[in-house]
Design a protein that fits this description.
Elements (H helix, E strand, L loop, with lengths): L1 H14 L3 H20 L7 H31 L3 H5 L4 H34 L5 H14 L3 H12 L1 H18 L11 H6 L1 H4 L20 H25 L4
Length: about 250
């Protein structure tokens, strides 16, 4: 355990003075600005818009970009740490995944703070406690994207990664309100956040009595997300461990 924590710390050190570290707060700031422009003059809309733009588009986009930049940095050093340290490739990549999970949690907390303050000033119907819970739920529900995007970054490059990210995100928005939401990993966070944020996947406020406010989807959704994360991590680690590092 100590070894993995040291790898996480080393990963943090590698992000200093890089765009990866700046994106952790820059993407939430972009979300705040976008929501403000789009909801200017509206009531009960700012916080709702922040959360909706964040989990449907900007968070997946941020993860895709920082995963790509992380792998590019490794390539620039010719995978120096993988070639010179006695630590296994699996542990080094696992440390990278854990660090990025922490980075995502930090970004989600920034979004929570900004959306809450903005909602207080500009009016909102998003419950404060529900939004706080959403920070943790969203982090867990999208962990699987980290190993998935690391694989796409290493194997296909940024353009293909971003296109796949966009396709899966749009598909998630379409599938989330349906009874088949559990079949698509990107639809899960959009569905399980509805009861806590009172926002539908399309950004419209959910009225009382709406079936998407059912809390019964939360536990199955989190379990499915963890299964997706474990499977994606194992597949990525096995693939990376067996490939030839160039």
């Amino acid at each position: 355990m100590t070894g993995v924590l040291n790898i996480v710390k080393a990963e943090y050190q590698k992000t200093k003075r890089t765009m990866r570290k700046k994106y952790i707060w820059a993407f939430p700031m972009i979300t705040f600005a976008l929501a403000f422009v789009l909801t200017l003059g509206m009531t009960n809309a700012y916080s709702e818009s922040v959360w909706n733009w964040w989990y449907t588009l900007l968070l997946p986009g941020m993860l895709a970009i920082i995963c790509y930049l992380s792998m590019v940095q490794e390539k620039k050093t010719k995978y120096y740490h993988l070639m010179t340290l006695s630590t296994s490739r699996r542990k080094l990549m696992m440390g990278k995944i854990i660090y990025m999970g922490c980075a995502m949690l930090a970004s989600n907390m920034i979004v929570f703070a900004g959306a809450s303050i903005g909602g207080f000033l500009l009016t909102t119907h998003v419950p404060m406690i529900g939004a706080a819970i959403s920070v943790l739920l969203l982090t867990v529900a999208q962990l699987w994207e980290i190993p998935f995007f690391l694989f796409l970054s290493e194997r296909f490059g940024m353009i293909a990664e971003l296109l796949i990210c966009l396709f899966l995100t749009v598909a998630g928005i379409i599938v989330a309100p349906t009874e088949k939401w559990f079949l698509l990993a990107t639809a899960i966070p959009m569905r399980i956040l509805c009861p806590f944020l009172h926002i539908l996947p399309n950004g419209i406020p959910a009225e009382n009595g709406n079936s998407l406010l059912d809390m019964g989807v939360v536990a199955p959704g989190i379990c499915l997300s963890m299964i997706w994360f474990i499977l994606a991590t194992l597949v990525f680690l096995n693939w990376f461990d067996n490939r030839e590092v160039k």
